[in-house]
Amino acid sequence: MKFILLAGLIPVILSFLARKFFYERVVKREGGTLVSLSGQELAEKILKKGKAEAVDVTVRKLSFVKLGPTYLVLSPEQATSKKAERVAEAALLAGMVLMARRQKKVVGWRTWALKFSWAMPAFTTVVMAFAMVVGRVAPSWCIGVIAGVLGLSTVLLWLTLPVEKAAAMTVAEMLEETALIPRRHEAESLANLVKAMPWRRIIPGAIAWIGRK
Asked: How many CA atoms does the CB half-sphere of 131 hold within 13 Å?
């Protein structure tokens, strides 16, 4: 049981450290500044630059990443905000759409891993809590199983991380080498944020959500 607990918790701890170093440092430094374009405006420019003008960009509240070769869903905050962090989020999602047009299955693995990291730990926690209440499973086993599922979710996020990193590099190159954003300092700041964004999602969703509260 100790082995399962450690095997589950170590990847999560490593993910928190990596997220803090590769993502939170950059966001703390540059994420709060305002830029000249909203998230939706930049996303549409990226799609146009990538010759994907036919992609349907819609805005609605969402819990998971929703995108594909022909569509992109942005949250209201991502679409309308001019805060650099939110704009970079929208830009990265546009980059994921461009990648999905070439490698749909690969992007599908990443989006599936993100959904799994939200749903499976939450489902497992509910099941284990019920099992513990009715006395079917010992508390130590319940904790071990939950930790194991969290560890599995984290490993899946790491295995699919290169997909999002590749999309981020594509968008960062556009920002650095073209005139998508006329103001050079804004383009450089957004490029740094976009490259940091994939590291935001290497922690299972439920834990990341709790961490923001």
From this structure: 16
65 Rama sector, left if φ>0, alpha if ψ -120 to 50, beta otherwise: beta
pLDDT at residue 26, as a whole number: 95
Q: What are phi and psi of 134, to 5 degrees?
A: -85, 0
- Show the tokens assigned to 33: 């500044």
Neighbours of 99 (CB within 10 A): 22
C-alpha dist (Å) from residue 32 to 83, 156, 190, 195: 6, 30, 11, 16
Residues in the chain: 213
DSSP-assigned letters across all residues of 72-107: EEE-HHHHH--BHHHHHHHHHHHHHHHHHTT-HHHH
Q: Which two tokens stand for residue 93?
A: 């999602």
Strand arrangement, sheet containing 67-68: 56-59, 71-74, 67-68
Joined tokens for residue 96: 């994921």
Tell me the three-class secondary structure of 4-39, residue by residue. HHHHHHHHHHHHHHHHHHHHHHHHHHHCCCECCCCH
Beta-bridge mates of residue 59? 74
Q: For CA atoms 87, 89, 93, 95, give the dihedral sign.
A: positive
Taking the chain (213 residues) in runs of 10, the rounded mean pLDDT of each run is: 73 92 93 94 95 92 86 94 96 97 94 91 88 82 88 94 96 92 92 96 74 46
